């Protein structure tokens, strides 16, 4: 454990559905078959606040918050950064699960929290006496926190990031920017800081309006969003957040536009020949034994002779994209939007590097 000084290395036409598909806890937990889009049963101005959440079996559970949480365990980059951006650092009694450094504008707040380099175990978290846990679907497996019912029985509310598979796979429950914005709004609502949450969401929406207005009369670029897995390429399809962000900024997916989620081969990529290719990387990302975490990820294509015929390679249209902006992105959602838009539309962003 430390105090936040060591980090792990390791659309707009979208209406926010304030059918808060969240995860909360109270002494009156009841499982429900209510759809994830069920409406909250409270006014937005206060408590009690009733939301719809999921258990580890991906079943909806309806729960009520009587007041704003005071002692929070936060797990995952998105959850930690959203809470910090909402001004809630003083509510965090413990946190873990960063994929990399927190955003620079949140670093000072992060330095004040009790951050664990690795998950310390359920008993340690219990000892911190949280009244609220926010994490991913995987946070609540048996080897970590255990299912949400364990915590609900102890009066501890919970919340799962909507795009973390708590609703099912991306094929069953497509991941979109709307869910990322809903996560921000839901946490804002839970803590009674809805106005601040709305400001954060407005930043995303305003940028999408700007981009969509720019591209409305232009031919959409054909792109691929790929992750090199050594012998094939993972496709970020239209049901993934990465694919959705790409489509929301006006691109057409050259691969992954349908529900086929299979990896593609080098030969298939060459045959498709997208106008632009975005290569996904994350902290610790390697192919073979070579580190490709960062801008050098593009070299997987640009320095491989077999891809010399690709239009994207010839025209300098192979770009890096950080996974943190296109998966459970939270406060990084705008980063993901800009990563695509600045690469595809340099005239719209003349000052971008």
Automatic annotation (TrEMBL):
InterPro entries: ABC_Transporter_SBP, ABC_transptr_periplasmic_BD. Keywords: Signal. PROSITE patterns: FE_B12_PBP (PS50983), PROKAR_LIPOPROTEIN (PS51257). Residues 71-352 form the Fe/B12 periplasmic-binding domain. Residues 1-22 form the signal peptide. Belongs to the bacterial solute-binding protein 8 family. This is Fe/B12 periplasmic-binding domain-containing protein. It comes from Butyricicoccus pullicaecorum 1.2. The lineage of its organism: Bacteria, Bacillati, Bacillota, Clostridia, Eubacteriales.
